[in-house]
What we know:
By secondary structure, this protein is mainly α. It has helices at residues 2-20, 24-39, 48-83, 88-103, 107-125, 129-141, 146-164, 169-184, 188-211, 217-236, 241-256, 263-278, 282-300, 304-319, 323-338, 344-360, 364-381, 385-400, 404-421, 427-456. It has 20 helices and no strands. α1 (2-20) crosses α3. It comes from Ktedonosporobacter rubrisoli.
Amino acid sequence: MQEKHETVSALCEQTSIYQQQGEHDEALECFKRALILAVEEKQSGADHLLVAILDRLETLQRLRWREVELLCKQMLALREEQFGAEDLGVASILHYLAERYSHDMRYAEKEPLYIRALAIREKLLGDGPETTKSLSALAGLYARQRFAAEPLYKRALAIKERVWGVQHPEVADFLDFLAYFYDRQQRYAEAAECYRRALEIWEKLREEDRIAGILTEHTDLKLAGTLVGLADLYFHYLNRDEEAEPLYKRALELQEKRPGEDLQLAALLVDFANLYFEQKRYEEAEALYKRALAIRERELGEDPETADVLYKLARLCYFQQRYEEVERFIKRSLAILAEKPGADLLTADFLYLQGALCYGQDRYAEAEEYYGKALALFEKIREDPTIAEVLFDLSDLCDDQERYAEALEYAGRALKQAEKLLGADHLRTHSFRGKYNRLLVFMAENEEASDRKEQAE
């Protein structure tokens, strides 16, 4: 058995050499030999050799996916012929193929593969780690179907808790993942509960490492991620800003212990700055935004992520009436985004801000032009409440210029969008409705006054 393992390893190394030399036919042929040896090897428990070989397929897949797919199917047939349909190696190949189909959006094909792999692993391994992988993968496939995915995720969590214990890093990791699942489903209270449970585990593990004299860097990183996830929920969805702030602070302290400044730190700085901005603590927000900007400029250069921080700085300066800085940030950012495809949403944000800046300076023609461009982009990208805000501002602009018919039209469109996307009882919807009704009354009164004047003449 050891000799076969060594042969497989040597063949894999030779495959890598062929790939580096651009000899892809030779690489594929060499890899076939390694995979056949692994397929023919029957091991107790999970087929680790076969799994390792399948992982190596990742590089070949990028080059010759059709041939690799055919090879996998051939190996699946060979494995089933030698060891039967209920075999862990068969399950590994099925699981691998299903994962690769995800990349090609072949969702209908991967479901039966995941189901077969899960059935084999449940029968042969019971509630083992490989079974939880299959459960999680199948649940991920059903992620948009809440009632199909959730029981699988919960079962996977229960297995992990039973196998590893409730205070294990594997459990904390899965709780973080489950929190993300609930977040995407807008089930924020359940997401927060998962984050809190994960937070308790990471805190306990970190303290154990500290007492044992073990470096806590890995645990610190995990803990910081959970803190940010919970803080984001409190801030964005649960209206618990005061509780979000200490979580962001703690996460920042943990991140700052690591050497250097990376993009993960920049993302946290932006999240924290957004909280301060919403609380009108502009000086504190600006300091964090500028730190994040420096990191992204260094790591990414003129990138949409850099432009995103510039937008937030421009917005902050706008609220502080620092208009020259706003113009400078907008000009630089639009130059960045003009070179980057797929940045329409951020470009629309900048155009909208430029329109607001011009409107505030009574530059009505320019404001209307920028608002119009922003509106066209927003409507092209997706249905978004911001569309209602742009329409509302266009209504105000026309109102100020005594273009009342246009103002009424824009107000009506804004109200319709708000009712559709925010709901009839939302605070902003009430504002839009009030504007629309005031214009209706004003125009009716003007028309009545005009009629009386004509009659008098």
